[in-house]
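In the design runs reported in the main text, the only information available to the sequence generator was the tokenized backbone. The following block is the verbatim input for one such run; it is reproduced so that readers can re-run the procedure and compare outputs position by position.
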């Protein structure tokens, strides 16, 4: 009888020990981010037809909701840095959708009605270059502050930062519309971000399901 009680208590203790690992906001936030950067990368590399950027807007809005939910989940579990990262990615996807749709329909008065194509092109460059520059600065600060994260997670953030840098450079050099080298580099780093994020998601999911944890790498800075 005593043995049965001890065994039951041990099983209960084991299940309680495993439970925190299964309640991981990474399981929602990371795949949302991976899908988003993958879609962005394909667009930057010219996979989508010209002028079809609006097709990713509904996807980005949906993914931003998933990321905000993951951020709230992280807050509830006391993981502030994770909440901040997911909230930041969610803000990017949502703000990009609002910026793109708003620009196309001139909701914000970016260019006067009846503006010729050349002037509208300058307005587009100015608008999106400022957008990309602001995010490049923000993610650079994020990367510098995330040096203590595991290497695979750090790479997700570092690659994301480079995407913004290359997009900004492609706009100010007026090569974005021509699918220049800088835009291609931005697209390639989107794909690298997606690969690194997919590994983090796979490692987190398998560990939550009871598999041996996969290594996420040592922090760049201890």
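Verbatim output:
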């Amino acid at each position: 009888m005593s043995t049965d009680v001890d065994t039951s208590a041990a099983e209960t203790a084991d299940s309680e020990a495993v439970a925190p690992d299964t309640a991981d906001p990474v399981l929602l936030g990371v795949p949302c981010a991976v899908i988003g950067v993958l879609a962005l990368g394909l667009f930057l590399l010219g996979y989508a037809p010209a002028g079809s950027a609006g097709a990713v807007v509904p996807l980005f809005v949906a993914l931003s909701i998933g990321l905000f939910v993951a951020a709230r989940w992280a807050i509830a579990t006391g993981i502030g840095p994770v909440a901040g990262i997911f909230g930041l990615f969610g803000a990017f996807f949502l703000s990009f959708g609002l910026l793109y749709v708003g620009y196309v329909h001139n909701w914000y008065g970016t260019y006067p009605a009846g503006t010729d194509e050349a002037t509208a092109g300058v307005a587009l460059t100015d608008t999106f270059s400022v957008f990309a520059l602001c995010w490049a600065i923000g993610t650079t600060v994020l990367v510098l502050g995330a040096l203590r994260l595991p290497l695979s997670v750090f790479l997700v953030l570092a690659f994301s930062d480079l995407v913004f840098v290359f997009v900004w450079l492609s706009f100010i050099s007026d090569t974005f519309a021509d699918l220049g080298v800088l835009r291609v580099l931005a697209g390639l780093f989107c794909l690298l971000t997606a690969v690194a994020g997919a590994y983090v998601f796979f490692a987190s999911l398998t560990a939550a399901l009871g598999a041996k944890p996969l290594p996420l790498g040592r922090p760049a800075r201890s």
